[in-house]
Amino acid sequence: MNEQVWRLAVRAAGTSLDVLSGAMYLAGYEGIEILPSDRDDDDRVTVRAYALTRHGLEELARVAAAVPGCEVGRIEEIEVEDWAEGWKKYFQPQRIGATLVVLPPWVSPKHYPDRTPIVIKPGHAFGTGTHASTRLVLEALERVRPRVGTRGPVVDLGTGSGILAIAAAKLGLAPVTAIDVDPEALYEAQENARANAVHLLVRTVEGDAQDVPAGARLVLANLSAPVHRAIAGTLAPRLQPGGRALLSGLLEDEVEGIVAAWPDGWERRVAVLEEWALVEFVAPS
Options 1.20.1420.30, 3.40.50.150, 3.30.70.260, 3.30.70.1070; which CATH number does 3-80 get? Predict the structure, then answer.
């Protein structure tokens, strides 16, 4: 069965691309493609955003049109192959770190007896373990798990498919709260949590980091750089002394801006995979 979706193409570069990525997060796109220019003298990229309804892309087009340097195309309705069948071609098991494996539902965990399985059904929410930014958080989560205390909430901010929250729960952390601006994403996160036999607390928000419970011991956030910068001053005070924030969704050259947005005196560590980066902050004890 084929499905109709909507697509918007925007050409952008530099700071205009930063602003565009923040607008896309708020618009609630279902997926994106980033295509480089085929000309050596053109540093712009074409960003294609996909959505199941036209409304979100109309707002994105309006915002992008007001950003200097953005060239906005028209919104098109396109036909795509069935989501599940299409995903079976591309979503293969992903071994991550030393102990994790991300699996689609049609692959049995029995094939990976030495790893902790995270079963994710491909859907419209971001997060299947294939993107470098997701892998960075999962690898960091595996690494810091022995250092994370036993008291205080664990929060996945912008949970998408729920993959990070589910991984935290599978690694023995609780309670885990999954937060997102999109109710459909939270529905998918709950479905994936059930498939993994773990419990998540879920919360729909308007996008304010104040919705992170006070005294959080661990925050996972795979978001765009503009969103990270916008919420840094609100998010940092929500962590308990010694609490950690694993921030991803960043390009390597965006790290400096994120570090500058956080308070002084925090221990930090940067990990890089391909051109993507993760910043780990540890609150002063």
Answer: 3.30.70.260
